[in-house]
Design brief:
- The complex is a heterodimer of chains A (335) and B (328).
- By secondary structure, chain A is an alpha/beta fold.
- Chain A is built from 12 helices and 12 strands.
- With 328 residues, chain B is α/β, with parallel strands linked by helices.
- In chain B, the strands form 2 sheets. Chain B has an 8-stranded mixed beta sheet, sandwiched between helices. In chain B, strands 2-1-4-5 form a 4-stranded antiparallel beta sheet.
- Classes of the chains: A alpha/beta (335), B alpha/beta (328).
Chain lengths: 335, 328
């Protein structure tokens, strides 16, 4: 990052989300069970600068999509705050400001089949945000803008008259991107935008997203389970495990020298496409149940470096020279 | 050379519809030797799963085999009656699918399902079958199998269920295992575990494996040979090292370049323009020619068959001919 960079565009502080997963009241009474809570995300903090891409990677159940939904304002955090350009997303006193903020952030979802209304024509889908935020003076300007957006994402302006079912998965994801761009956002949250797509189509979409970032000065929060995709897209990467960020580092440094045991093991577990003969070492065990996570560091039952403090105390994310890791073994100099 | 476990010759699978007959698998030829893992890779709609379904006789009507032959050992199995085919499935060909929950009956304990399968295919007592099931589950990496054999599928995690399915597929000691996207629904760390398990179990038993996946990484990791499919045809087939490191077919080249890797960092991924043709509109000649940067006149007219190129077979005219003024 350049030293001249001003305050970050997006800031998350101590984001936490707890879901109530209890059985219904009557069942609890009959079966004598207590309420059950699931901590999907606990105390996550990060900042995203302008034109930066922060990626969150993790396996299923690590809480990455919950973070995305909280950042974009679809889910109220149990604790903590999200501020975008200095405006708190959830402060009740600033409802009006929040409304104007909505225009500046958009989201792209994983499933391009589920996120487009099948009964609407594509031009209506793309024009909807323009209408909602009153960004066009008249119908002619709106049509012009929709055509412009379709061209921008590599589709034909004539495609606007078609319905979503007439398009392939990759083309639908382009439509989703056009819709996200229609309100001139500065910040886009992308939740697994290519994991439903084939590799050759994925390459087209990833290239497009990077081109658009350069052209329109966008910032991305990029959620993915695929380390290779993240490597291609991100400026910085946060690795999540069971609701916490365990390591946060610039992309080149993370891949050159992963520090946290989980990151190391995750990289070892990746398939070796270069066929270098590197042995692929599977991580032992599985992600624990988030309703009853292990005490201390959540990764300790699978960690070959675990020692006494790991079983007792949750390690904090400690920053050193631009990169951060949450690990007792690193702090104790054991790794 | 000994006889291959599976040999597929000129297999053609088609779906007759009112308007036209759609050919989903077109003239596919390959074989798998004992103990060998053949990876079949391709994008959605390339026909890889249908090839697998045709081999085990599980094509959904109206899809049917319209030509070619499938041999298991010396025996032809594509023209068996459904009743005879049922005896081949499970006993001689094991199957693993993407979603372990669809392969397991949620209402039966996993032990009962394995015991039933063993007793269907082998003449053993209930007790013997149960002991064998426990040994198999242990081997598949389920710790404390004796205590967990009476659990229901929902009591296992996704990775554990796939281990159970693998044990179930191998319990009759089949000669051939067809695994259709066995790790696609799993997280990377679990994926690595299942791949390692699959390789170990099949190597120990000398089982031939047809591994169907869209993930080149899994192929590079697991397969001995790989077949790349495009629009129902095999574009390239050869030793995995040759295909991954030195792809010869322009489609394979594009596909390899399109995959983001954690190693070398490229600023842009290779993009193959367009998308795979629909079955109703497969172009004449080479199916890939409208998207191919190297296409020349012959590609538009004549369909290339598997042409020898080194240790591989490539369905591309460039393997035998250099058009004037073009360079690959």
């Amino acid at each position: 990052m350049t030293p001249a960079s001003p305050a970050p565009l997006v800031e998350a502080k101590g984001l936490t989300r707890v879901f109530d997963v209890s059985k219904p009241w009557l069942n609890r009474i009959i079966e004598g069970e207590r309420k059950a809570y699931l901590r999907a995300v606990s105390g996550i903090s990060f900042a995203i600068g302008r034109r930066e891409t922060l990626a969150l990677v993790g396996e299923s159940g690590s809480g990455k999509s919950t973070v995305a939904r909280m950042v974009v304002g679809l889910l109220r955090p149990t604790a903590g705050a999200v501020t975008i350009d200095g405006i708190d997303m959830w402060a009740p006193a600033r409802v009006a400001e929040r409304q104007t903020l909505r225009r500046r952030l958009q989201m792209i979802f994983q499933d391009p089949y589920a996120s487009l209304n099948p009964r609407w024509r594509v031009d209506r889908i793309i024009a909807d945000p323009i209408k909602a935020f009153e960004l066009a003076k008249d119908k002619a300007e709106m049509e012009h803008r929709v055509a412009e957006l379709l061209t921008l994402v590599g589709l034909d302006p004539a495609d606007g008259a078609k319905y979503p079912h007439e398009f392939s998965g990759g083309q639908r994801q382009r439509i989703c991107i056009a819709r996200a761009l229609s309100s001139n956002p500065e910040f886009i949250v992308c939740d697994e935008p290519t994991s439903a797509l084939d590799v050759s189509v994925q390459a087209q979409i990833l290239n497009l997203m990077r081109d658009l970032q350069d052209r329109l000065d966008l910032s991305y929060l990029f959620i993915s389970h695929n380390l290779a995709v993240v490597r291609h897209m991100a400026t910085r990467i946060g690795v999540m495990y069971l609701g916490r960020v365990v390591e946060l580092a610039p992309v080149a440094e993370l891949f050159a020298a992963p520090r946290h045991p989980y990151t190391r093991l995750l990289m070892d577990a990746l398939p070796d496409l270069g066929m270098t003969g590197r042995p692929r070492r599977p991580i032992e065990g599985e992600i624990p149940n988030p309703i009853a996570p292990p005490p201390g560091c959540a990764f300790h039952p699978r960690c070959p470096w675990a020692f006494e403090p790991c079983r007792v105390e949750v390690p904090e994310l400690i920053e050193r020279s631009g990169r951060a890791a949450a690990c007792h073994a690193i702090e104790a100099g054991r790794i | 050379m000994s006889e291959p476990v599976l040999s597929v010759r000129n297999l053609k699978v088609a779906f007759p519809t009112r308007r036209a007959t759609l050919t989903a698998v077109d003239d596919v030829t390959f074989s798998i030797a004992a103990g060998e893992v053949l990876g079949v890779v391709g994008e959605s709609g390339a026909g890889k799963s249908l090839t697998g379904a045709a081999i085990i006789g599980l094509l959904e009507p109206p899809g049917r085999i319209m030509g070619g032959e499938v041999r298991l050992g010396a025996e032809r199995i594509d023209n068996l009656s459904p009743e005879e085919m049922r005896k081949v499935r499970g006993r001689r060909i094991g199957m693993v699918f993407q979603d372990p929950l669809t392969s397991l009956n949620p209402l039966y304990r996993i032990g009962d399902q394995i015991v039933e399968t063993i007793r269907t295919h082998a003449d053993v007592s209930e007790g013997q079958a149960r002991e064998r099931a426990i040994a198999l589950l242990e081997e598949a990496g389920i710790q404390g199998a004796r205590a967990r054999i009476d659990s229901y599928p929902h009591e296992f995690s996704g990775g554990m269920r796939q281990r159970v399915v693998l044990a179930l597929a191998l319990c009759a000691e089949p000669e051939l295992l067809i695994a259709d996207e066995p790790t696609t629904a799993l997280d990377v760390s679990i994926q690595a575990q299942i791949i390692a398990l699959l390789k170990r179990l099949c190597r120990e038993r000398g089982t031939a494996v047809m591994l169907i996946t869209h993930d080149m990484g899994v192929i590079a990791e697991t397969a001995d040979r790989v077949a790349v499919m495009y629009a129902g045809r095999i574009a390239e087939i050869g030793p995995v090292r040759d295909v991954v490191k030195h792809p010869r077919h322009p489609y394979t080249k594009g596909l390899m370049g399109a995959i983001p890797t954690v190693g070398a960092h490229a600023s842009r991924l290779v993009q193959i323009p367009g998308s795979m043709p629909r079955l109703a509109a497969i172009p004449k000649g080479c199916a890939f020619h409208p998207r191919c940067a190297y296409a020349f006149d012959r590609c538009r007219i004549e369909r290339p068959e598997g042409l020898e190129a080194g240790n591989s077979k490539v369905a591309c005219w460039l393997a035998v001919e250099q058009p004037a003024g073009a360079s690959a």
